[in-house]
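Table S5 (text form). Sequence records supplied for joint modeling of the two-component complex.
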Amino acid sequence: MMYVVAGVAILLTMGMAIARMLAGPTLYDRILATNVFGTKTVLIIAVMGFLVGRPEFIDVAIVYALINFIGIVAILKFFEYGSFRSGIADTDPGAEENKETRP
Amino acid sequence: MIALLLDVLSWILLLTGSAFLLIGGVGLLRFPDFYSRLQAAGITDTLCSITILLGLTLQTDSLSVAAKLLFTLGFLLFTAPLASLSMAKAGRHSKVDPWRPENGGES
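The corresponding structure-token record, covering 210 residues in total, follows.
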């Protein structure tokens, strides 16, 4: 019963994240909603494993957490700097000023 | 007796997590700009992970499942704030405007 309550709450939050994903005025709102959706997917995989009596599903949740984090950081880097190639420090606009103040 | 105590604790943790999940979801929908939505979402990322995964950990008998749940919790506690920080930094870098009262409520 407690798993059903938690699962319903997680599903409602995922629905709200999808609404923000569709409605978000900027790109970063959509990325934020995607991140929330991914984190809540980890939680609902864990809860569903307990609900159906097979808690070993938590392995899937661990892998999903890893993939979600790497994917979000990659998407953010792509849309912030326009490519995957150059390092973040190379294209940082504040790097030029920092170089001059450094000895 | 111990089982009943664990059940009650698990109920409390799962219900707290569910309540904060719904609050964070409503905040994600209703807040006026990107940064305040980021705050609502970031709070649910860490707080709800702590409460729900700890509530599940109290319900299991197997040591390996408990260890995996705690590992997932630790991993989420490291990566969720980092993802929020990256999103805020990317938003600042791309000049997403914060909400101001004189703009009439739209970001």
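Note: Residues 63 and 107 of chain B are 49 Å apart (CA to CA).
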